[in-house]
Each structure stands twice: as structure tokens, then as C-alpha cells.
Design brief:
- The complex is a heterodimer of chains A (300) and B (264).
- Chain A has 13 helices and 2 strands.
- With 300 residues, chain A is mainly alpha-helical.
- Chain A has a two-stranded parallel sheet with strand order 1-2.
- Chain A is elongated and about 75 Å long.
- The two termini of chain A are 37 Å apart.
- By secondary structure, chain B is an alpha/beta fold.
- Among the domains of chain B are: 120 residues, Rossmann fold (3-Layer(aba) Sandwich); 60 residues, Alpha-Beta Plaits.
- In chain B, 39% of the residues lie in helices and 17% in strands.
- In chain B, helix 2 packs across helix 3, helix 3 crosses helix 4 and helix 8 crosses helix 9.
- The longest helix of chain B has 16 residues.
- The chains are: A mainly alpha (300), B alpha/beta (264).
- The interface between A and B is large, with 43 and 56 residues.
């Protein structure tokens, strides 16, 4: 029972060659990510919520087409309806992003992780890379699947694609529900950026995790930014709120996925889609930079 | 230990391993292995996945995992989630993690916590085996009796300050006055003779005499000269625990009291 053979059958390469690097850390993070159940639960929820809400919301909106007035018909946005699941998914990827960091702080295993590398920022970058890649793939697959499910629901309601070159006026006067093809103006961009939105929020949440180091704290902050911040901005004097509104992360997300409704006044308060994506990327980068700064400075 | 592992920043000074600061190590896991907190594990992950994730960070081959699992005796539960592990099993997994990179320097914080007597014996043998291999094994523990059995060199720290750094034997020798226990049917007569020879004699509860200031041979000679029969005569060695208590008595942060003391 108590034989001690300090094993040496498996020989490790000489420690004087090479060094533990980013690729090693990435492989390790992938093993950690795939070996806990919460990852798979979150990703399945993202996919199902995306498709489910797309079908549900598109179905409801399609049912109301006949009774809609001019303004509502002008704002009828088949792409946006198909991406409604994003509203739910943004919180799921936020939880995932925070958990990949805070679960290690909660158990203390972050100290084991940090003692595998002589550069702490490698750990942060590896986590962002692995989770970012996984979330990006799942989000894009979900965004495109949701788009097609949404258009199928519209077709099922008797929808038809408007002739090429149709204006918003044609849509308002159309007798049938408009259906959008993926190659129609702006659709591809909107669906693609829908996945990008979730990716950027994931990175932001990951950064919050490193900054706050507690699951409840990081998730509260994340939800606060998406849900509470807009409420606070709304109670500001309208001159202030209307100039701040467009820069809120949640409104950047809307700006990224608007297509038809961009052509109406309703969307006038929002930034252009790529500008919105750029600004959100800037928010995420700033959060991650602060996270890296604190990770290197603080005791683990 | 956390400063050694580069986790906490010292207020002053540096810690080096083989002359290198932690941040300068090329393959940290292969140069220094540490067990700091046994329960610092994601409860949902299996032991195999935990070790594999660790191994990958330092390009350690997968075959090494089976090897360390066998060494710590966890092969049969390796695919179970570690959240279901007892403290003793987590401790074994922590030891496996520390040994994963086959490092020359090992740090163990309270390695026998939660282990059964068989496990404690195993850790003792393992640590001594690792040291006999030529590795540096640094263990922190509050279990003095355990340290007396395992350690060769001792570092005593109280309130963040170094109290002593020496070998276990020297530590005990230099901090206790050698005393001799002697037992005789004529205890009073013997005590008399010894006191006259300049020794300090304390009578024990069981009729024995604890003598300091004379060695065993001299006591035997004096007893012979005084015509007193001697039934027992032996050198008394203070335990590491006793010496430790004596040295650190005025340096502990929290003092416990007996119920009687609390009542008065």
C-alpha cells in the first residue's frame, strides 16, 4: 500500500529548452471549458433561445401585419424580429464569460492556474481566446439559423419578398408580409453583427470577472450595464438622455442588427451599425485592459 | 509559500527558486510543484480533466496523468467529479497535481490534513522518498509530532518573523536543558545526594525525580556512592512540540482558555 516509487517512466523534456507559452495555456483553457457542464448548458440555451424566440416573435408580428398602420408597417423589420433571442442570449453569454473567471476565484483554483505560467496576462488572453472563439461560433450559427427560421415563419404566414429595389414606401403599401433574403441589403451585415454583439459582451463579462472576482458581483455589474444603465439614462433630462442613449451597450446592440427600421425616424437616435460595433469593441477592450492591469498588480 | 509561487507580492525582498524568481521560470510546473489548498478545485470537473488541463499548461504528456494518479491511489475515482471527493481524496489529488511536472522543488501546505492514519503514513514516506531523490521538499504544518518524524531542517515562523532556522535535532537540543529521569525506592535520600552535588531536582507525581544539571553517568555514580538503589535512569528528550510551545508562547496571536479560566 505504501510503496513509494516516485515515477519516472514518463520522461519530460528538458526544462532548459523552450518555455510554457500562450498555446499551452489555450489548450488548457479549452480542456477546462469543455469539462464542466455549465458551458454546454449555456451554449445550448443560447442556440435554443435564439431559434425559439425568433420563431415566437416573428409569428406574433406576422399575425399583426394586416392590422398595422403606416408607421408600424414602416418599422416592420423581419431581420430584427429573427434576432430577438439575442436579448436573452446576451445574459447567458454574460454569465458564461463571468463564470469562466469567477468560478476559479470562488474555489481558489485561480492560484493553481496562475502558478502554471510566469506571465499572468497569458491566462487572461487564453481565456478570452478560447471562450471568445466558442461563443463566436455558437452565436453566428444561432444568428443565421434564427434568421432563416424567422423568414420561414413569415413565408408560412403568406409572406413574399419585395421586388428588388423596393423602398420603405413599397413595404408600407405592400399587401403581403415582407420576407427578407440573406443577401438583401443589410441583412447579412445585421445577422453577422448579431453574433459579434454576443462575442463582445462575452469578452466584456470576462473582463468584469477578472476585475470583480466574485460571480454575483460580476453578473450583477453585467446585468446592470445592460438593464439598469438605460433606466438611469432615461430619467436624466431629455436633452442629456438623448445624447447619451445611443452610446449605451444595449442600444449599440440594436444599432448593429437594424435593417428596415433604420430607414425610419425610429432608428434616428442609433449609431450606424459598424460604428456601433466599433464602439462596443472599444468598451470591451477598455474593460479587458483594466482587468489585465489589475490581474498583474493584485495579489492572487 | 504564496510569495514563492509568485501569487502574493512581498512587502520587501525577493524569493528565488534555484536562483530564479517565479516570473523567470520557463516551465513553472516542472520546476516547482505546490499543494497550497486541497479544496481549490472546480467541483464539476473530474480528476483526470483537472490534471489534464494542468498538464497542458506546461506541455506535460498525457501518460504522466495516469502515473501520478496511480502514485496517489486515485485511479479508481479518477473519472468522478471532484466535488464528491472527501478532504483526504482532494488532498491526494493536490499532491498528484504538485508532482505532475516532476519538479525538483516541492511545496506542501499541511499535506496530511484530512488523511486517515494510513494516508498520513503514506505522505510521510512519500515526502521522505522525494527528499531522498534529491528534491527540495518544503512542508508547512502545525502538527509538530508529524514534523518531528518527517523533517530534517526546520524553519520556525511566529507572527511573520523568523524565530529559528536549524535542523530538528539541533533545535530541540539547543532549546532544552538536558534532564534525566531517575527512579529509586529511596527517593528522598537520592534527592539529597544529588542536591548536594549541585543538581536541581524536581519530584514527579509518580515518584520519579527529574534532574537537571548532571548527566546520567554522574547521577549513577552519586547514587552508588550514597548506597541508594536505582530502578530507572534515563535521559529525557523534550518533544518538538514542547520546545516549539516554549519558544513561541509569547508570539501566538490567539490564546485559548480552559472552561475554568473562563468562569473565574
Amino acid at each position: 500500500m505504501t510503496t513509494v516509487a516516485v515515477p519516472g517512466r514518463v520522461t519530460l523534456s528538458d526544462v532548459s529548452h523552450g518555455r510554457a507559452g500562450f498555446a499551452d495555456q489555450v489548450r488548457s483553457e479549452w480542456t477546462k471549458l469543455r469539462s464542466v457542464r455549465s458551458t454546454w448548458i449555456c451554449l445550448v440555451v443560447v442556440f435554443l433561445a435564439g431559434i425559439g424566440l425568433s420563431a415566437l416573435v416573428t409569428n406574433v408580428e406576422a399575425g399583426r401585419w394586416a392590422t398595422l398602420g403606416f408607421v408600424d408597417r414602416a418599422q416592420f423589420d423581419p431581420v430584427r424580429f429573427s434576432q430577438t433571442g439575442e436579448f436573452l442570449s446576451q445574459f447567458v453569454v454574460g454569465v458564461l464569460g463571468a463564470l469562466i473567471v469567477t468560478s476559479e476565484y470562488g474555489t481558489g483554483s485561480i492560484r493553481t492556474t496562475l502558478s502554471t505560467t510566469s506571465h499572468r496576462t497569458t491566462v487572461l488572453l487564453a481565456k478570452l481566446t478560447v471562450l471568445g472563439a466558442v461563443v463566436f461560433v455558437v452565436s453566428e450559427v444561432t444568428a443565421f439559423a434564427s434568421f432563416f427560421v424567422g423568414q420561414l415563419v413569415l413565408l408560412w404566414h403568406g409572406g413574399k419578398a419585395l421586388p428588388a429595389g423596393s423602398s420603405i414606401i413599397d413595404q408600407v403599401h405592400s399587401a403581403t408580409i415582407p420576407v427578407v433574403g440573406i443577401t438583401d441589403g443589410g441583412a447579412l451585415r445585421a445577422v453577422f453583427l448579431s453574433g459579434v454583439y454576443l462575442l463582445l459582451l462575452t469578452l466584456l463579462a470576462c473582463g468584469l470577472g477578472f476585475i470583480l472576482r466574485h460571480t454575483a458581483g460580476a453578473i450583477s455589474a453585467f446585468v446592470g450595464i445592460l438593464l439598469v444603465l438605460p433606466l438611469i439614462v432615461q430619467i436624466l433630462p431629455s436633452s442629456l438622455s438623448s445624447s447619451f442613449e445611443r452610446y449605451l451597450p444595449s442600444n449599440l446592440g440594436l444599432a448593429m442588427i437594424f435593417v428596415t427600421s433604420r430607414k425610419t425616424d425610429f432608428a434616428g437616435v442609433l449609431l450606424a451599425p459598424w460604428a456601433a460595433a466599433g464602439l462596443l469593441a472599444l468598451y470591451a477592450a477598455a474593460t479587458v485592459a483594466l482587468a489585465a492591469f489589475l490581474l498583474v498588480r493584485r495579489d492572487a | 509559500m504564496r510569495m514563492v509561487m509568485g501569487l502574493d507580492r512581498p512587502d520587501a525582498g525577493t524569493v528565488t527558486i534555484d536562483g530564479k524568481r517565479f516570473g523567470e521560470l520557463r516551465w513553472p510546473l516542472r520546476e516547482v510543484g505546490a499543494l497550497l489548498e486541497a479544496k481549490a478545485l472546480h467541483p464539476g470537473r473530474t480528476a483526470v480533466d483537472h490534471l489534464w488541463a494542468l498538464a497542458q499548461t506546461n506541455s506535460i504528456p498525457k501518460a504522466r496523468i495516469a502515473e501520478v494518479l496511480e502514485l496517489v491511489g486515485l485511479e479508481s475515482v479518477a473519472r468522478r467529479r471532484v466535488g464528491k471527493y472527501s478532504l483526504g481524496m482532494s488532498q491526494r489529488l493536490g499532491i498528484a497535481s504538485a508532482l505532475l511536472g516532476d519538479p525538483g522543488v516541492l511545496l506542501f501546505d499541511e499535506p496530511v490534513n484530512g488523511l486517515d492514519p494510513e494516508g498520513i503514513l503514506w505522505v510521510r514516506t512519500l515526502l521522505q522518498g522525494l527528499a531522498a531523490d534529491g528534491r527540495t521538499v518544503f512542508v508547512s504544518s502545525h502538527l509538530m509530532s508529524e514534523m518531528a518524524l518527517t523533517a530534517t531542517d526546520l524553519v520556525v515562523i511566529g507572527r511573520g518573523r523568523l524565530i529559528a532556522q536549524t535542523s530538528v535535532a539541533d533545535f530541540i537540543d539547543s532549546n532544552t536543558e538536558a534532564s534525566v529521569l531517575v527512579r529509586s525506592p529511596d527517593a528522598d535520600g537520592l534527592a539529597d545526594a544529588l542536591c548536594r552535588a549541585g543538581a536541581a531536582v524536581v519530584a514527579g507525581d509518580d515518584g520519579g525525580l527529574l534532574v537537571t544539571g548532571l548527566d546520567a553517568a554522574r547521577i549513577g555514580d552519586l547514587a552508588f556512592g550514597a548506597g541508594v538503589a536505582v530502578h530507572e535512569l534515563r535521559q529525557v528528550q523534550a518533544s518538538l512540540e514542547e520546545v516549539f510551545m516554549e519558544m513561541t508562547s509569547d508570539m501566538v496571536d490567539y490564546h485559548g482558555h480552559t472552561p475554568a479560566e473562563v468562569g473565574s
